[in-house]
Amino acid sequence: MSEYILDCGGITKRFDGVTALNNVSFRLRRGKIVGLLGPNGSGKTTLIKIINKLLVPDEGAVYIDGIEPGAETKSLISYLPDREFVNGRMSVTELIGLFSDFYADFRADTARAMVGNLGIDLKAKLKTLSKGNREKVQLIMIMSRRAKLYLLDEPIGGVDPAARDYIINSIITNYSPDATVLISTHLIADVEKILDEVIFIREGSVLLHENADSLREREGKSVDAVFREVFRC
Which pLDDT tens digit goes with each residue over 214-225? Predict the structure, then answer.
């Protein structure tokens, strides 16, 4: 078994002649929390969709646990998109049932316990919940799977600071130690404390991929401060 759960080699993607990703290459080891960091429009969502086989690259290849994205890798990846995906007419219990039916690795008891800890009624319709609580329920569904690779696209982008703290704590307490979490975000300060590695991406190109502690030590400042310096307008 390779030490790498994800291998991206030379990924290029164009839309109507505009290059969204340009020769993106990196590998992620197992058991890491990695920040995919870049401003809006830098290519983060496009890359995550390619890893999840929602888009196909024009050039390059992706391997998850040595397998190209497809039906086989669906059981390896747990994916949180950058927008709400829940059906508001469903109750929380119905959503848990849906995930239980769809994913053999889904831990329904874990999901129910986490929802209960938030004080959310399992019978409540999702459309009746606040935006922050809907975001939390979505994350609970994703993190209640026993996946090898979690792809979280802007998981804290649209919620208040209190909800961000809950989401971050949920991430670090509910993934297997040998699994890898890739978090796409432009809100560096909120996630920096949990990151093992960082990838800076701008205009579809990777600027750096480095251990977070090594970057802080070398630059003498926080990852957030380095990010602000690199991406200063």
Answer: 999 999 999 999
